[in-house]
Amino acid sequence: MAVAEGAGSQVKSAVRTVELLEFFAGRPGMHSLAAVQESVGYPKSSLYMLLRTLVELGWIETDATGTRYGIGVRALLVGTSYIDGDEVVAAARPTLDRLSDDTSETIHLARLDGTSVVYLATRQSQHYLRPFTRVGRRLPAHSTSLGKALLATYTDEQVRKLLPETLEPLTEHTHTDREKLIEELAQIREQGFAVDREENTLGLRCFGIAVPYRTPARDAVSCSVPVARLTPAHEQMIKDALFDARDRLLLATRRL
Amino acid sequence: MAVAEGAGSQVKSAVRTVELLEFFAGRPGMHSLAAVQESVGYPKSSLYMLLRTLVELGWIETDATGTRYGIGVRALLVGTSYIDGDEVVAAARPTLDRLSDDTSETIHLARLDGTSVVYLATRQSQHYLRPFTRVGRRLPAHSTSLGKALLATYTDEQVRKLLPETLEPLTEHTHTDREKLIEELAQIREQGFAVDREENTLGLRCFGIAVPYRTPARDAVSCSVPVARLTPAHEQMIKDALFDARDRLLLATRRL
DNA sequence: GGGCTTCGTTCTATATACTGAACGGCGTCT
DNA sequence: AGACGCCGTTCAGTATATAGAACGAAGCCC
Description:
Two copies of one chain form a homodimer.
Chain A: H1 12-26, E1 31-32, H2 33-40, H3 44-56, E2 60-62, E3 68-71, H4 74-84, H5 87-103, E4 106-113, E5 116-123, E6 138-140, H6 145-151, H7 156-162, H8 178-191, E7 194-197, E8 204-211, E9 219-226, H9 232-252
Antiparallel strand pairs in A: 1-3, 2-3, 4-5, 4-9, 5-6, 7-8, 8-9
Chain B binds a DNA duplex through residues 9, 11-13, 32-34, 42-46, 48-49, 66-67.
């Protein structure tokens, strides 16, 4: 899960601390010491001390017996603060509201982190049929319109370095070949936006556009529509609204 | 900020790691090494290694120069996973939706953590005039209806152990005397719900009720209303809806 | 019911992370 | 321009966290 960078001397306990937190985040629910040990591979005794420390600090919680561990409340505050402190998210707020009003569909603002995109802000569609989303959620870049729009601002060579040759499929429509994806990126650069045709979630088509306030781009906005509700006219309207939103966001972030 | 529990040997780097994360969470924006050092008090060189490690892992980010630090994207995922994995939050979803529909006001589900309450879920009022809220936000227990409803499920003696003698005022209406608060808690036990009369935010009155699926209670729901919109009839309707929501939540969480 | 496995916890030598001082680069003040 | 002060970075001795094994307590099988 976590990419261990091949860098020089790191503080071992710090690495383990965040790896542990990421482990618990990735597997909600309570886990025994042995189960955690199995997954992370640290010696039992070392793990034991670490867990005890984190429990005392409230970052990990135990059940009543004290032998099963899960993520703690303290972790919650830190995560959300990333959003609070981000100038781009703050500057994007009115644009996202506007985009949500214009399209009446679910809107996402996301950031590329490694090979994933992370949702930074969402505007939920008020329709009964709507995609499930949550700020902080991570999705593979190669299967989302957001990710593809962002990858298209990288050179082909950079993309080859970033992504593995074969990509993990999420639905039957996911493109799993990196070179095929790179061909698609060229097309995305031409038309200015990316489309996800049920590559990430069956029944959902997404339109994504990068916000190039820096190069390569870091953030993108998207609009997700259930295919059941999509008409050519609606699609055109969404694309227009996205281009408009992109321009507004560029303006709002030009000083960042 | 972080309450250093007086327990036995802890893993120093782990403690510092989460303390650092909490520092960055508490002060959004970028900070120089010296500024961080000033705040947390660790030796410069120790801090330097820790920061470098966390930057490599993506939990802390640097600006272009590499000398100013801020919270990183990686922290975001872990925080939100606490919500995702929580059975109470999951079970409460339909009840919160219903409460939001019934009252048309802002709804909160929160959990007591030390002397603070932490928002676990919110339903925003669709009115133009609405309180600012965010999941993960922490507020003092003594100044909120949520916190007071929860504290009322503790004994007076437990409350005395938990809270300091004088409480920090947030507005001119905040009760700052612990013994006065304890008197109010007795009244809350009688009537079954708590009220915050602009003690936390000027112009905002909140009604809170504990969900006693365990004793003492851990979670509470509240409804926040701008005083400008509050009439006796509206207030009665809100209280009824809260009692109803409490009963539903008890039912939904009886197996947890 | 006894022995066996499994799991959490404690113990102690050893590897290693921490610290305080020294270094070097940069901006600034006179 | 020169010197000072500030800040990030490196270095080496020492305090300390780590890891493997031993311990103790449940639960399980026969």
